[in-house]
Amino acid sequence: MDRFKGKTALITGGTSGIGLATAKLFINEGARVIVTGRTAATIKAAQAELGDNAIVIHSDATSLPDMDALAVKVKETLGKLDVLFVNAGLGRFVPFEAMNEEVYDEMLNLNAKGPYFIVQKLVPLMPEGSAVVFTTSIANMKGMPNVSAYGAAKAALRALTRSLAAELLPRGIRVNAVSPGPIDSPILLKIGMPKETVDQMFLHMKESVPMKRIGQSEEVAKAVAFLAIDATYTTGAELPVDGGWTQL
User: Fold this and answer.
1) Fewer CB within 10 A of the terminal residue: the chain, N end or C end?
2) Cβ pair 64, 113 in contact under 8 A
3) How many CA atoms lie within 13 A of 12 on its CB side?
4) How far is it, in rounded angstroms, from Cα 119 to Cα 132?
5) Is 150 designated active site?
6) What is the distance between the terminal CA atoms of the chain, rounded to a whole angstrom?
7) What are the phi and psi torsion angles at 200 (to 5°)?
8) Model pTM greater than 0.70?
9) Three-state SS sequence of the chain
10) How far apart are CA 241 and CA 245, in angstroms?
11) Over 141-206, what HEC string results?
């Protein structure tokens, strides 16, 4: 299928989960895609899975020099950028009383500061009609224990979505966000949470979600594609993909 033929996309944090599923969708629809990751093993695996229509490279989503190098790579290989999916992010489950400055800074740098500056670096390559999509979280809408720093960072990212939507409007660039609920992805295992704990958490969340199931990465990818390509009269919005958890 060639629905996105001629389109170019950059997906940060795209070597697994939601980012990888979105990369697959865009490639299957004919787009040329650059994907970033931070570990050699996942970069190699993602490149093998995505094939020749993707370039998978190392880039630290908190490093401004890495962002500068990434902008150069995008310009050299793609020329222009139609879609910037700012997906790199991570949450840590830490009780408020146990929070320390190191983890707090990590959450804000990765989930708020990094997204701010990656857009700043890439906007010069984005033509009229292009789009930015951020990954926020239901944690910016629901009061949830043990994710105070993460929730604060994602709330900042939600505010950034609105601010940049207004500021980039004269350039013809739309800015929106997708807000996943509980999604079956390896992100919780990446932060060292045992599989048994993850399974228990998902079981609890499954009962809390009105649709009574955990979402799939591919379902979020479809929402990203809608916001990035099809939603041409939408900017500043956040689209929940959470089984109705924040809405019902």
Assistant:
1) N
2) no
3) 30
4) 8
5) yes
6) 36
7) -65, -45
8) yes
9) CCCCCCCEEEEECCCCHHHHHHHHHHHHCCCEEEEEECCHHHHHHHHHHHHHHEEEEECCCCCHHHHHHHHHHHHHHCCCCCEEEECCCCCCCCCHHHCCHHHHHHHHHHHHHHHHHHHHHHHHHCCCCCEEEEECCHHHCCCCCCCHHHHHHHHHHHHHHHHHHHHHHHHCCEEEEEEECCEECCHHHHCCCCHHHHHHHHHHHHHHCCCCCCEEHHHHHHHHHHHHHHCCCCCCCEEEECCCCCCC
10) 9
11) CCCCCCCHHHHHHHHHHHHHHHHHHHHHHHHCCEEEEEEECCEECCHHHHCCCCHHHHHHHHHHHH
Amino acid at 47: Q
Residue 163: what residue type?
S
Domains and CATH numbers, the chain: 8-240 (3.40.50.720)
Q: Which of 104, 116, 150, 233 is catalytic?
A: 150
**CB-count exposure of residue 63 (10 Å: 0-12, 13-18, 19+):** middle
Q: What is the mean pLDDT of the chain?
A: 93
Q: What's the pLDDT tens digit per position in 194-232?
A: 677 777 777 888 888 999 999 999 999 999 999 999 999
Contact (CB, 8 A) for 239 and 176 = yes
Beta bridge pairs of residue 54 = 33
**How many residues are listed for the chain in this entry?**
248
Q: Would you say the C-alpha torsion 234, 235, 237, 238 has a positive or negative sign?
A: positive
